[in-house]
Amino acid sequence: MALLNQEQIKEIIPHRDPFLLIDEITELEPGVRVVGKKTLKPDEFWFQGHFPQEPVQPGVLTVEMLAQAGAVCVLSMPQNKGRVAYFAGIDKAKFRRKILPGETITLEVEMIKMRNSVGVGKGVASVNGEKAVSAEFTFALGAPAENAGK
């Protein structure tokens, strides 16, 4: 059951179609932990060109999905409302299994370090309880939108 749907996610992170890559948030402890889901429809735009004879989920997009879930976790904190989380690094990325059209990816992210406006999250993407992708990512928080460019 969704805690946050896509419309509610859009109130927290700035991503929009076609690059909002999470469908729902099912668990959320702001600034600590988040669980999200993405069901891959067979007509996702990337399947047209990513091995059309045998479509598979691009690993880099799965890492982006984890990062977006992590952004929901951090940006749902009241003091971070209106800010943007930018990638600052990706470490320890491992790709363990193919993810296929029609499968639902569970995205679990835990924040492991936060200092000022820089933090580190650890994420695992799984399908039916089987680990598919894991990575640690560093992010930097930008100024709230109303202060951008000042």
From TrEMBL:
Enzyme class: lyase
EC number: 4.2.1.59
InterPro entries reported for this sequence: FabA_FabZ, HotDog_dom_sf
Gene Ontology CC: one annotated term: membrane
Subcellular location: Cytoplasm
Keyword entries, A-Z: Cytoplasm, Lipid A biosynthesis, Lipid biosynthesis, Lipid metabolism, Lyase
Lineage: superkingdom: Bacteria
Family annotation (Pfam families): FabA (PF07977)
GO biological-process terms attached to the record: lipid A biosynthetic process
GO terms, molecular function: (3R)-hydroxyacyl-[acyl-carrier-protein] dehydratase activity
PANTHER family given in the database record: 3-HYDROXYACYL-[ACYL-CARRIER-PROTEIN] DEHYDRATASE (PTHR30272)
Family listed: Belongs to the thioester dehydratase family. FabZ subfamily.
Protein name per its UniProtKB record: 3-hydroxyacyl-[acyl-carrier-protein] dehydratase
